[in-house]
Amino acid sequence: MQVDRRYQCKDVLLLAYQSFGVLFGDLTISPLYVFKSTFSGKLSNYQSEDVIFGALSLIFWTLTFLSLFKHVVILLNADDNGEGGIFALYSLLCRHAKFSLLPNHQTSDEELSTYHDPRYSYRNPQSSSVKKFAERHKKAKTALLLLVLFGTCLVICIGFLTPALSIRSSIEGLQHRSNNLHYGVVLVIACLLLVGLFVLQHRGTYGVAFMFAPIVILWSLSIAAIGVYNILKWNPRVYKALSPFYIYTFFRNTGYDGWLSLGGVLLCITGTEAMFADLGHYTAASIRLSFFCIIYPCLVLQYMGQAAFISKNFDAVSTSFYASIPDALFWPVLAMATLAAIVASQSIISATFSIVKQCYAIGCFPRVKVVHKSKWFRGQIYIPEINWVLLILCLAVTTGFRDTNHLGNAYGLASMSVTFVTTWLSALVINFVWCQSLVLALLFVLFFGSIEIVFLASSFVRIPKGGWVPLVLSGIFMLIMYVWHYGSRKKYLYDLHNKVSMKQILTLGPSLGIVRVPGIGLIFTALVSGVPATFTRFLTNLPTFYQVVVFVCEKTVLVPYVPQKERYLIGRIGPKSFRMYRCIVRNGYKDVQKNEDDFENDLVMSIAEFIQLEAEGCGTLEGSVDGRMAVVRTSEKFGKRLEISEVEQNGEASSSMPPTILNSSKSHVLQYLQSTYEMESPGYTLRRRVRFKLQQDMTYKDLNVKDELSELVEAKQSGVAYVLGHSHIKTKLNSPCLKRFLIHVAYSFLRKNCRAPAVVLNIPQTCLIEVGMNYYL
């Protein structure tokens, strides 16, 4: 037991060390601009020590209540299988109450190992009246989803406001040192750093991430040491400001002007939401250890030091951080401030990519290309479209706002709004997930929500001075998400209404009334049951199809990750002689797509396992209108049904001859054309090529099973084709004008300017077949 505890302590310490580079960069960079923004308005007319101590007391207790108590002590417990953030809270709510609006939910999804948290599964109290009301009314579910999407839109805004404010504030130290330095020079340096930061995003942080934690730790200890130096040198009595009494004297002396300054005070907690959102990389114990032992005391000492300096040098309040640094340490601290700002920006950019991916996963964001390389950390992704949008917006606000106080106003309003959204979602989690009383949930909202409303009200006054930026852009992002979700849902309901019944398929016989050709045809659909109209549309225009047909449905389950063993749900459509199967690929909202060649091989192995399990009469099966469904990869014999061997590539880029052609039932002309097309397609030589064979030493009780497996292997060797619907969306003639505008203009514009489904699914063009479909919504 002592050895296990020792290893657990080492793991916690290691994670605590690593967490500095990801979670706390934004929070520790706040001292650069908190006091400057707080005293930027009419509060600069109040230069008494009591007012300065009152501002420090507000900063201290805001940091203590909202960062320490709310997030570190309470919210770190509200994780979804170790993941945090707005979507984690929403996912918990949807799984413990019927709040989800995802249309293709199945009972088998609830059998996933990550679906039920053992901490909450044993609690099964009677549903509260609030919960019953929300489950019965669709408008309540829609309002909850809109609240979550509004929070994610604000996170996207923080994604470009954080780099702009952090990097520019760190570079402004040059102006303090060199009074003759022109403002434009500082702006150019800041823009160059921002461009470099976003341009290098596609390379990931794998090679430099090891430096992030030392940078933030060194930065935190440095600002703490500077704070202690300023306390001892300028005003040792500053510790008295930690008393809440100074908050009372602050508002008594400043009145309305003091309330307006709260928009600057709230900047001391910016970055706290990022700490909760990136919880999945670490544990709650490691984050608490880092925050309690290093981050919190270092920040408190720094703010106390700045207050002590300002109390004796009020004229330098606009540059109080750099002005309080000893001359001998100025340049090293400036360098560390710039590096810490870059680390903080990198963390929030990665968090923005993640939140967009989660919106896309639940059908609330247009299709984007999600890049994840094998050597990158789990969960680290790169989205090119979002990266360049963030860069443009970041440069726009950096150059557009000459005063960093305006950037601070925009950043503060966005951060506090996200915090307020999290408070309401957390209250619902306390009641519905933790199964605590409604009174406790209301007390949580009243205590923390009342504090946040006071700050929000002060921030709204600053809307004309920069606060309008996150509100306007959040509105635009919300409109994009709503239009995409509306159009996608209408399209799904059309598919659901026009799907082909099984009776109609069964009347066609084993040949389906068409010519069956060698190969596997993968028909992608959003339906989890029935036959999509895409299939019948194809047969109507070209009465031939592949000998093995697989209907593939990729769906998102409201869990962060689906274990690989539980990802594939395999079933059969019709009698065995039809050779028609259904594959439901279940992904979590943070899962990343694999390469198409791995998907093909996994699919063949899964179907082979299903055929064997079906013959043996075992497996985890689910009854459905199409037949029985099985989670096949949990079988102990999975991967042993077929022999797999790597196929060597002998074709070189300089050779004019096509690569070696595998044995196939196709004619030599078709094989030659296929291999030639594959050689011309980019990335062909990087694809993993395998060959399947039946196990030589395996005995089959039923020869039909052997024949079916042989046919599956032969079909895979002949090739795999991907059949996707190429939809043309139209509205009915009697549709309202608003609906026609949403579908014909807004939704059509998004569909034409986002990634094609084949690109998102990593489907090679040589294997793609698109079937045109008209949708009348």
From TrEMBL:
Name this protein carries in UniProt: Potassium transporter
Q: Which family does it belong to?
A: Belongs to the HAK/KUP transporter (TC 2.A.72.3) family.
Q: Where in the cell is it found?
A: Cell membrane; Membrane
How this chain sits in the membrane, per its record, is: Multi-pass membrane protein
* Domain called K+ potassium transporter integral membrane: residue spans: 15-506
Q: Which domain of life is it from?
A: Eukaryota
> Known PANTHER family for this protein?
OSMOTIC STRESS POTASSIUM TRANSPORTER, POTASSIUM TRANSPORTER 3
Which NCBIfam families does the UniProt entry name for this protein? kup (TIGR00794)
Q: Where is the K+ potassium transporter C-terminal domain?
A: 518-776
The residue ranges crossing the membrane are 12-35, 51-69, 142-161, 181-200, 207-232, 258-277, 289-309, 329-356, 377-398, 410-433, 440-461, 467-484, 505-524
> What's its job?
Potassium transporter.
One Pfam family assigned to this protein is K_trans
The record's keywords, sorted A to Z, are: Ion transport, Membrane, Potassium, Potassium transport, Transmembrane, Transmembrane helix, Transport
